[in-house]
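Suppose a colleague, Dr. K., hands you the sequence of a protein chain of 602 amino acids and asks what its three-dimensional shape might be. Before reaching for any lab equipment, you can write down a predicted structure in token form. Begin with the sequence itself:
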Amino acid sequence: MADKAHTRNFSIIAHIDHGKSTLADRLIQHCGVVGERDFHNQYLDNLYLEQERGITIKSQAITLPYKAADGQIYELNLIDTPGHVDFTYEVSRALMSCEGALLVVDASQGVEAQTLANMYLAMELDLTIVPVINKIDLPSADVESTREQISEDLGLDGDEAVAISAKDGVNIPAVLEAIVQHLPPPTGEAAAPLQALIFDAQYDPYRGTLVFIRVKEGALKPGETIRFMHGGGTYKVEEVGIFGAGRVPAKELKAGQVGYVIAGIKTVADTNVGDTITNAERPAEKPLPGFKEMKPVVFSSIYPVATDDYPDLADAIEKLKLNDAALVYQKDSSQALGFGFRCGFLGLLHLEVVQERLEREFGLSLILTVPSVRYKVYLSTGEMLEVENPAVYPDPSTIDYCEEPFIKATIFMPERYIGAVMELCLERRGENTNFHYPTPGRVELSIELPLAEVIYDFYDKLKTVTQGYGSFDYELIDYRRTDLVKLDILVNKEKVDALASLVHRERARIRALHAVNKLKDSIPRQQFKVPIQGAIGGTIIARADIGAFRKDVTAKCYGGDVSRKRKLLEKQKAGKKRMKLVGDVPIPQKAFLAVLQSDTDN
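The predicted structure, expressed as tokens, is then:
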């Protein structure tokens, strides 16, 4: 085990697709942690969703032994982080466990939105940053221009940036040397009282909760009794260790090390990410500063397709929450769908990932309601309500005014797409536009937008109009007045509570038309005509009809008197009318999912 002076804790941060996971793969291969037979690309992305989508969702840690040019053996603790704006929370947690970070920039794309956002996160935590220019093997790579951008846009020394190709393994030793030379060793005394920060956790059905920690002060050995300083639980340590190709048990974890603890923690709810672990007999004076609470921005209700699956869903969400501290949930119920959970997410990708993990890891079939944001509703009595669920929206006659959250969006793109992107932003009620030209041919657009317009399908549309070259980052700024209405969807004149949504009055008709047309295509035909309507209060603003099955009752009348045919048709019509009064229209699960899909998904 290396001493503190020969230990380095670092993260790799970057914009999406700039090559973090590929660089991590090359560092792992170069240090020989994993044999060639066991190695696979995206080695640290062990969620199948990460492998499929080619993105990192969870931070993962691994310890790399490295023999430096001076002959010394170093222990490098790498924590790989996501790049997508929805998972900034994972990044901030990983960075709290490090002293330094490699900031990867794509040699052909240059500095982008998340590059800046993640660098500021690292700077807030006083980390030492080493810039790395990746993808120098691409024909469009411009290393010198990227060095200039790093100096001008990021304020780092562009000449110090290590130019590499992670895909081809070019110049990887230079990155390892830069880590050893430029990043500081960890601080902390092994003799001091134990302080260890929990930065992640996982559930193992055989061992209970695995807690991932960074030891800041003191040391931790098996057999000791530990206490969670916020949670208050005490446990006996069964095993400690570091992350190699798998879990590698160790005799102890000392100050400065990153590793895991198994202590027979049976209940998932006892482990809080950001909590401090200390020794029960010799506790630390105060806990380490945790992470700032993440505020969910997108809300949706999750229901099981079969109501009998509700206990399984409850169990699954609790286990997922352990591994995803940003997920917020509470119980909810609906007339159409039964019991479920109202969940808060950091964005739409986060919502999709949670949905897929619940469906695939826990074998559940789910229905989600239309995503919404949290509005502030001021009543005539002067009272203020926070409403994100259309079911609890108050009577419009009691409302004085409403406010909705606004964001400041930063969009990086090639200059030629300004027109299309501006049109998209103005269509979504964008205001206060600013342009900045970091380098010739590239534009940084900052614009204020209502969050509700962004969560639905803005990111997909942006990627479409910029042919994949636009990058997008946002931060919440404030709440502003809005003309909010509750849009109800009626099937056969019955409100379907799970399809109700809160929308801006200008956008209500577009959203209503989208919903009724999707339902018309998804609900099977009945023996009677079924009207599907979008309504604000008692005003119908959109309608589509599903035609009835028609049996040709006149087929057996060859020629003959027309009144005979008329009589048969009238009889059929009366039968359909009677059926409509008692007929209940079943809405299939795919209809709920179809309403959620934006037009760009088709």
